[in-house]
Amino acid sequence: MGELMKKDQLILGIETSCDETAVAVIKNGREIAANVVASQIESHKRFGGVVPEIASRHHVEQITIVLDEALKQADVSMADIDAVAVTEGPGLVGALLIGVNAAKAVAFAHQKPLVPVHHIAGHIYANRLVAELKFPLIALVVSGGHTELVYMKEHGHFEVIGETRDDAAGEAYDKVARVLNMPYPGGPHIDRLAHEGSPTIDLPRAWLDGSYDFSFSGLKSAVINTVHNAEQRGETIAPEDLAASFQASVIDVLVKKTVDAVEEYGVKQVLVAGGVAANKGLRNALEEAFSSLEVELVIPPLSLCTDNAAMIGAAGSVMFDKGIRADLSLNAIPGLDIELFNNDDLS
């Protein structure tokens, strides 16, 4: 008789760091067996942003429903699952706690290993559901709460080489959208409007020479001042031109710093990660910039850019293989540092 076929590895991923209640089942670190997301955008829209208390209440209501649905879609039971991976941080502490406690309860009840995952590592590993990672690589992480350049020499090793000193890119998008009286979340609205206008308004770009860090606070303030000054003079600014000018400023800096980092570090691959990776302007600009470079650019589909649990399962698979485990004292850490995960003895 031939050797028995190797059993597929199945990781249950749980993500509740902000306003999406998500559970997924990931097969062998690369394949989505199920990816269920319950969004709360409609609940938060009227407040112009995520209200932490409301987010937590929604997670409590949804987590078991979403968990059951993910297992059903994957056509597996908890007996088939090899480990439970959950977002430990960063994020909203109340929201994180729902996912962490649900993961601990499920892992304890079914005697499964518990694997802590960093939310940004999840965004990076969403790319592994599209293409196998090639090291060394650089990941450009652009989301509502984070803008970072992360260098990876191998699986599960993260070195932050640049990060935002103030507002994250996604945060700046939401604040500018508010100035233009657009609903939350503002990013998609600005992106759509920008394609209708021209970048005719001169707005600043924070280059922070000699650094891969980012800064978008000055740009956000410049947009607000431009609008206020025009109102005081009784002038009107075409919102589509303002959106196009703002987006051009953000994209110029993101693309230039990514290209510079890629050339300095001599990487084989560039990954784009986070909610702002869904931005068409950014995707197009990166594709154009890397079309002449011998570096593979990987951008996940829109469904894997925003928060989801498939990315947590994909990252959890790597952490599980590296022997990273948590016990039932696992807690939510809202300001968790991704570089802490480089310690192979982490438990």
Overview of this structure, please?
The protein has 347 residues and is an alpha/beta fold. It has 2 domains: 10-125 and 305-342, Nucleotidyltransferase, domain 5 (2-Layer Sandwich); 133-299, Nucleotidyltransferase, domain 5, CATH 3.30.420. Helices cover 40% and strands 17% of the residues. It contains 10 helices and 10 strands. The protein has helices spanning 41-45, 52-74, 93-110, 119-125, 169-179, 186-194, 217-232, 239-265, 280-290, 310-321, and strands at residues 10-15, 20-27, 31-39, 83-89, 114-118, 137-142, 147-152, 159-163, 269-273, 296-298. The strands form 2 sheets. The chain has a 5-stranded mixed β-sheet with strand order 3-2-1-4-5, sandwiched between helices. Strands 8-7-6-9-10 form a 5-stranded mixed β-sheet, sandwiched between helices. The longest helix has 27 residues, at 239-265.
